[in-house]
Amino acid sequence: MMFQAQNSFGDISGKVVADFGCGCGTLGVASALLGAEYVVGIDIDSQALETASLNASDLELDINLIWCDIKNLKWRVNVKFELFLYPMYLIDVGKMVDTVVMNPPFGTRKKGSDMDFLVAALKVASQAVYSLHKTSTRDHVKRTALRDFNAKSADVLCELRFDVPQMYKFHKKKEVDIAVDLWRFVP
């Protein structure tokens, strides 16, 4: 995913990259390894952020991690990167976000959660958003991104297969094979 973002479009190296729902930091780490100027990972799960911090540290990478819910972010658009996490808490890193990368929840348990991530990403990114969505939602994702979220373009770069193991109580099967699209959106 990150290799294609860099080698096909030049959206990683020398760029400010935000990893929404960063989890253990896979996409942020890959961005840093591909030469991102600055990487910030955002997640609601503090344990996942601890793992992301360890992963970055093990590789001697400088990745900034923020604990918050993507839906609660208030972003200033078209100004230097400022996150308003709560009414009185401001993080100003003095940079514009060029690229947002994410593997959002697919919206299977909570309908629309993937689109919550997408609308936030399109408000923040100045150049591109890379996101994974279930292939079965392809028409909806494209229509919503272009019509409702004002993306300039929405393109499926490739279709992947994800083997999702039973990780949560709400997962009913031991393992599920899901068709997933890798998207590139231009805000």
From TrEMBL:
Superkingdom, according to UniProt? Eukaryota
Identify the keywords attached in UniProt to this record, alphabetized: Methyltransferase, Transferase
| One family name in Pfam for this protein | PrmA
* One of the record's GO molecular function terms: rRNA (adenine-N6-)-methyltransferase activity
Q: Which CDD domains match?
A: AdoMet_MTases
**Signal sequence, start to end:** none
The protein's name in its UniProt record: Methyltransferase-like protein 5
Origin organism is Cinnamomum micranthum f. kanehirae
